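User: Before I run my own analysis I want an independent prediction to cross-check against. Here's the chain; please return only the structure tokens and, at the end, one sentence I can use as a sanity check.
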Amino acid sequence: MTQLASSRDLSSPERLQAFTDAVVAIALTLLILPLMESVGELADHGGTTAQWLVEEQYALLGFALSFILIAVFWTHHHRLFRQVRQVDSGLLWLTVAWMFFIVVMPVATSLSTQMDADWAQPLVYIGTLFATSLMLLLARIYLRAHPALHTMDPEEMRSGIRAGTVVAALFLAALLVALVLPSAGNFPLLLMLLSEPLQRLDRRRGPSKPAKR
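Assistant: Structure tokens:
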């Protein structure tokens, strides 16, 4: 069994985590570039800092929101990989898919904050967030099916999957609301405020207790 696992081992968890760290850092940096460009454009026309703050207020809010969300995604991914001891092809490609949507986030943010509002904006932005959360959830499910790849106990794994399901479900609900009510824009993301209360309620329920004899 050990030899089989070693033969499927494509990368060390540390190396893959370092790669994802670099991808996340680049994505976070790309978020600020449109704002940097707008500073230069306004400066060429004799604009002021106050004018820039007013004109770019929605872009600034979009930047802050996306920065926080990417940071949260990275935090959860980092915590997960702290207990991964081997990486096989399935886990590798799930991580690559997760990184793909992280890289898409700066584009989705720019479309959401710089283009004229239309029905496709929330579809792209919220859809990217949902896909990112889904990839992380699928990675947890994959690890549960391959216990040789990690050191998590079953209850910890189940708790992580339940929490990931709550997050993905709320993103999906926000996406559906945005599709039904296009004029709502990205406001359906306020549903994510329910994430922590729902996860806290789930943790309060605790692990299932064995039946008494």
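Sanity check: The chain is about 75% helix and 0% strand.
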